[in-house]
Amino acid sequence: MVRVKLIGEVLAPFFLVAAFEPIGLWFTAPIAFAIYLSFLKHQHRTILYSIYFAFTANLLILYWSGAYVGVLPWVALSLLQTLYFLPIGILARFSNNIPLLISSILVMEEVKARFPFGGFSWTRIAFSQINSPLASIVTIGGVLSLSFATLLLAYLLITKKKSVAYVLLSLSILPSLVSVIQDSSEEKSLRFTAIQGGTPSKGLDFNSRAMGVLNMHLAESYRSVKGDEDLIIWPENAIDIDPLENAIVREKINELIKRTNVPLLGGAVLSEGPTNAAMLFREDGSIGSIYIKRYLTPFGEYIPLRSISEFLSPYAERVDDFEPGQVLKIHSVSGSKVSSIICFEIINDGIVREAARSSGLMVVHTNSATFAGTAEGDQQLAITRLRALEHNREIVSISTTGPSAIITARGEVIKSLKDGEIGSLSGEALILLKISISDYLGGFAPVITLIISLLWALSSMRRKDNN
C-alpha cells in the first residue's frame, strides 16, 4: 500500500500533464490534485513536494516554449510558474485543512493570471477542462469557477466528509443543464472564409520572408474565396510588411479585394511602434478599422529584464519591443460587430470579456509558426474553445500554420485545419447578442468564487475546532 501511494505521488504531475493537450484527458486533472492535496494533508515535506509537482508539470506542459529558443528560457518559465505553488506548500506546513488549501490554490491561479508582466495563465486548471461535463460552469462563474469545480472533484476522491462538496459540485452542474435549453438569440449570420496560408519556414525565422507569407495567403485566398462571403479572415502576421507604408503590399491586398469584392480582416505588423494589429480593409480598398494588440506576450513581443533575458537566450537580442494598444476597436462588417483577439490575448480574462461584451462574433488571429510541430497550437485551441463557451460567442480561430477552427458558442469544433496544413475554412457564423452571466458579473465572478471557497474553508475549520 505504501509503495502504491509513493508511485501515485511520483506520477501526480504526469496525471496533470495528461489533462492538457495534446493528450487532453480532462479527468486526470482531478486525480492529480487529489494526490497532491492528500500529500499536503498527510506528509511533512510539503514545500519540496509542491516544487516537484509544479515544476515537473509545467516543464512538460510548456515544453513547446523552448522548441526554438533553447532550454534555459523553457526552464526559467517553468520555474516561474512553480513559484505560485510555494505559498501553498508553506501554508500546508501550518494547516492541513484541504478546503483551505483548495482556496489557496484558487488565489494563486488568479495571481499568476495577473503578475508579473501582466500574467501568464496558460496552465490554469480550467484550461485543461473543456471536455469536462462541468465545463459549462464558466458561463456563470468564469474560468476560476471551473478550476474550483475540478478541485472539488479532487476533494471528493480523498475525503469522507462529502456533504458540502456535493452541494457545491451540484451547483456547478446546473449551467450544463441550462445550456441545453438556452436561447442562442442570434440576430443574423455572417459568411466568411478564413485562410490558413502557411509560411515558407517555421520557427523564429518564419517572418524572415515576409513577402512569402503574404503571397501564400494571397494564393490560398484566390483558390478558396468564392465572392459571396461577407468577410475574408487572415491570421496574425499574414501581413508582416506594413501596408500603410509599402505600396506593393497595399496593391496586392487591394487587388484581392477588388477581384473578390469581399473585405479582408487580417493580422499585420505596423512600423510605427512597432505594433501588432488586426486591420479591416473594405471593398473599396480603404481601411475601415485597426485594432492594436493590447496584451503583449512577455519575452515574445517585448523583453522584460532585457539584460538577464539576453544572458539566458541569445534570441532575446532579436526581439524588438512592441508597443501595446490602449483601446478596444470593434470592426463593423455587413452591419455586424466583429472583435479581434490576437494570439496570447486569449488567456487574458479582461480583454476577452470586453471583446465579447462589445461584439457578436470573435475572431482569434494567431501565428503558430513559431511553435510549429509542438502542442502549443492544440493547447491554445483548447483555451479558445473554453472562451467560446464562457462568453456565449462563436469564434473563428485562424492560424498561419494551424491548427485553425470554427468554434460554436458551446465550445464545439465544427470545422478545423491541422497543424502544417494549407487550406481554408468557410462557414456562416451566428452573430450572438446575449452576454453570458459571467460577462454580466465581469470582474466580480472570480471574487465570488474566491469568497465561496473561503467560506467553505472557514466552515470546515470551524467544524474541526468544534470536534
UniProtKB/TrEMBL annotation:
Chain ranges of the CN hydrolase domain: 190-433
UniProt GO MF annotations: N-acyltransferase activity
Membrane topology: Multi-pass membrane protein
Subcellular location: Cell membrane
GO biological process: lipoprotein biosynthetic process
Keyword Phosphoprotein: no
Transmembrane regions: 12-39, 46-65, 134-158, 164-181, 440-458
Assigned keywords, A-Z: Acyltransferase, Cell membrane, Membrane, Transferase, Transmembrane, Transmembrane helix
Protein name: Unannotated protein
GO cellular component, one term: plasma membrane
InterPro entries: Apolipo_AcylTrfase (IPR004563), C-N_Hydrolase (IPR003010), C-N_Hydrolase_sf (IPR036526), LNT_N (IPR045378)
